[in-house]
Amino acid sequence: MRVLLVEDEEFLAEMIAEGLRRDAVAVDVAHDGRAALDKLRFGAYDVLVLDRDLPRLHGDEVCRRVVGQRLLTRILMLTAAGDVRDRVAGLSLGADDYLSKPFAYDELLARVLALGRRAQPALPPVLERAGLVLDTARRQASRDGRYLALSRKEFAVLESLMRADGAVVSGEDLIEQVWEEDTSYRTNSVRVTLSKLRAKLGDPPVIETVPGSGYRVGAGR
């Protein structure tokens, strides 16, 4: 899952971003409304975490433009104003969810993950294929009943492959879905992460390489 976090308080933005990255979410950050629109123009995001009170371009206007362009990105609006009228106003702009500051990180994560599942064709929170079970809500994975201790990137790569339901996912698509935009070594990172993931999944191999196309989770035994 890929998230764009738009928050002008840089310390808060970094704290949220680091937390989401620890939970296997790829996060890009913008600190004002115009920078957010630039990133949305060139990147595909599952969820937009949008502070309402932004410099250069107000969060309300960012929300209007995202909705007007019919992007598939789901919007979680953040604001320090938490009364009912503010929540109604935010949702009336087309936001999918609303969270008042201050908030608990666990609640933010739960809302982001829930919106991420709605950002694409509806899929169950627990994905199963070839003996693999991936609980995207609890961030847990197992194979044939054996718990898998995956890093956040390994989990995110496996989630992308399993969401494809047997279809091939290119290396470029994995980069787009899993890695942050400022990672300069992403192509090599895909290969390294897949190698470590395959080792943890064990035999028989379940992640197939399709020459010239990408990777997929096979149908299993």
Briefly, what is this?
The chain is an alpha/beta fold and 221 residues long. Helices cover 42% and strands 22% of the residues.
Write the layout of secondary structure elements.
Elements: E1 2-6, H1 10-22, E2 26-30, H2 33-42, E3 47-51, H3 59-68, E4 74-79, H4 84-92, E5 97-100, H5 105-118, E6 126-129, E7 132-135, E8 140-143, E9 146-148, H6 152-163, H7 171-178, H8 186-201, E10 207-210, E11 214-217
Parallel strand pairs: 1-2, 1-3, 3-4, 4-5
Antiparallel strand pairs: 6-7, 7-8, 8-9, 10-11
Helix pairs in contact: 2-3, 6-8
Description of the structure:
By secondary structure, the chain is of the alpha/beta class. Helix content is 42%, strand content 22%. The protein has helices spanning 10-22, 33-42, 59-68, 84-92, 105-118, 152-163, 171-178, 186-201, and strands spanning 2-6, 26-30, 47-51, 74-79, 97-100, 126-129, 132-135, 140-143, 146-148, 207-210, 214-217. The strands form 3 sheets. A 5-stranded parallel beta sheet has the order 2-1-3-4-5, sandwiched between helices. The protein starts with a strand and ends with a strand.
